[in-house]
Amino acid sequence: MATEQDKKPASAKPAAKKAATRKPAAKKTAAKKTAAKTTTARKSTTRKKTTPKPSAPLKAGATRAAASESKIIDTDNLKNKAIDKARAAANQGKERTGDAIGNLGKLIDDSARTLDENVGEKYGDYARSAADAVHTFADKLDQKDVDEMVEDARQFVRKSPAVAIGAAAVVGFLVSRLIKSGMDDRS
Fold first, then answer.
1. Residue 134 CB: number of other CB atoms within 10 A?
2. Which stretches of sequence are listed as region Disordered (predicted)?
3. How many domains would you assign to the chain?
């Protein structure tokens, strides 16, 4: 009897194990089937949502391209307008500077006559040579275009940057003094 009992529990044990393993397997396949159904349902709905009309992207792309082109054109127009205004202002400033330098040359020339009478001809000659140099500079300034003057300034800075920095510092100092004295006169 012991042998039959040993046989029964041995045969009963694998059956119990098989039954226990089969149940979760059945649950897994059922879960797989429901998951497959939901993914199939999702796939079919996403296809409908993402399938665009063939003409829609072309129209949207064309609209974007036209908008970006108009922005580029607007930017170019603004840039050209700004450059034109800057050139006009530079030309006007050049004319005013030329007139001011010409007037300075006349002033130096007039003072040369006074120096001849009061101090001597030697000092009057120095003043006349300075007046001639100023008149020559004013003539060169009137003859040159603004673009030529900018290029000349670039070449000068490239050749001697230390002198250019020193000149900029002196001009900055003089301008600040002029502004400060103008403010002191107003108050």
1. 19
2. 1-72
3. 2
Contacts of 113 (CB under 8 A, 6+ apart): 124
- Establish if 3 belongs to a structural domain: no
Decide: 101 and 138 in contact? Cβ < 8 Å: yes
Are 99 and 138 in a shared domain?
Answer: yes
Question: In the numeric block, which tokens belong to residue 108?
Answer: 């130096």
Kindly state whether residues 155 and 179 are assigned to the same domain: yes
CA distance 168 to 175: 10
pLDDT of residue 32: 53
Q: Is the pTM of this model over 0.70?
A: no
- The per-residue pLDDT for 51 is 53
Mean of the pLDDT values across residues 114-137? 87
State the CB neighbour count (10 A cutoff) for residue 11: 10
The residue to which tokens 């792309």 are assigned? 61
Helix axes 55-118, 146-159, angle to 10 degrees: 80
pLDDT in tens, 22-50: 555 445 555 555 555 554 445 444 445 55
Range of the domain at 83: 61-143
